[in-house]
Specification:
Blueprint: E1 7-8, E2 15-21, E3 26-31, E4 36-40, H1 61-66, E5 73-74, E6 78-80, E7 87-92, E8 99-104, E9 108-113, E10 118-124, E11 129-135, E12 140-145, E13 150-153, E14 165-168, E15 174-179, E16 186-191, E17 195-200, E18 204-206, E19 215-218, E20 221-224, H2 226-230, E21 243-249, E22 253-258, E23 263-266
Parallel strand pairs: 1-5, 14-19
Antiparallel strand pairs: 2-3, 3-4, 4-6, 7-8, 8-9, 9-10, 11-12, 12-13, 13-14, 15-16, 16-17, 17-20, 18-19, 21-22, 22-23
């Protein structure tokens, strides 16, 4: 049986994204309260949680009297404020765990310096951002938007434009992203349109006259939900089969979870 060993309190609304860096015993969280949290999994390093955020602050009198706290309760090392709308995803920098990146419904990708607790860079896009992953090896961050496309952003200070590349093909919000474990040029996306799409950023064309910055890419393969194939009526906009989460494992393949109450596994290679 799995038992909780630590409870972390600090957010004032739902926590929608987590990132873990095992060597440093650190966790990042993104919340709909607009904030990014930095936490320690070491009880001795983590400060005490604020009393007004603990369950005991709003539990009824009988619960307070009859239920003793047996799990250590701790607060954040730092709470980062800067986003002006729900923070939807957060990651550690792939090669520097003292740096974090986050995206938000406020259209921005923000870069944070964890030791100093400071905001060091903000990139503003045209649409709310819902997902984020790093493409290690090509110095790009992939962000999924409510506008149905994926924007690749170069977070380095020397970058002259916000969007280095735009990937198009989904017909609804891009809810999650994961890198190809076998190639620095590939990634998979999950969308509320009920599909996962595979991308190779080398398969691109120059942007046309539609106002898109940089280059434009199209997916190289589409994975539909098996549950949608069982229905005689194709879901409109992915209704009932929305993909909420996706991962790409080197051995297992592409794993996706959806509104259809299923975890689907597709082998990426024979």
């Amino acid at each position: 049986m799995l038992k909780p060993t630590l409870e972390l309190y600090g957010h004032k609304s739902s926590v929608d994204s987590l990132a873990v860096h095992t060597p440093s015993c650190r966790i990042l969280s993104a919340s709909t309260d607009h904030s990014i949290g930095l936490w320690s999994t070491r009880k001795t390093d983590a400060p005490a949680a604020l009393a007004n955020l603990l369950p005991s602050a709003y539990a009824n009198k009988r619960r307070r009297l009859n239920k003793a706290v047996s799990v250590p309760q701790r607060g954040p090392l730092t709470m980062f404020s800067g986003h002006t709308a729900p923070a939807s995803s957060v990651i550690f920098h792939p090669t520097d765990p003292t740096v974090a990146h986050s995206v938000s419904w406020d259209h921005t990708l923000r870069t944070w310096d964890l030791p100093t607790g400071s905001l060091v860079d903000t990139r503003t896009t045209s649409h709310p951002l819902f997902s984020l992953t790093a493409m290690n090896g090509v110095n790009l961050l992939a962000t999924g938007s409510s506008a149905r496309h994926i924007t690749l952003i170069d977070p380095r200070a020397s970058a002259t434009t916000v969007a280095a590349m735009t990937l198009r093909g989904h017909t609804n919000t891009v809810s999650d992203l994961a890198p190809d474990p076998n190639s620095v040029y590939g990634l998979v996306s999950g969308s509320h349109d009920g599909s996962c799409r595979l991308w190779d950023i080398r398969s691109v064309r120059s942007s046309g006259t539609d106002g898109v910055q940089g280059q434009v890419g199209e997916s190289v393969y589409v994975i539909e939900r098996d549950s949608a194939k069982e229905s005689k009526v194709r879901p409109v906009g992915g209704e009932g089969v929305k993909v909420f989460s996706v991962d790409w494992d080197r051995n297992l393949g592409i794993v996706s979870a959806g509104e259809d109450k299923r975890v689907q596994i597709n082998r990426s290679r024979p």
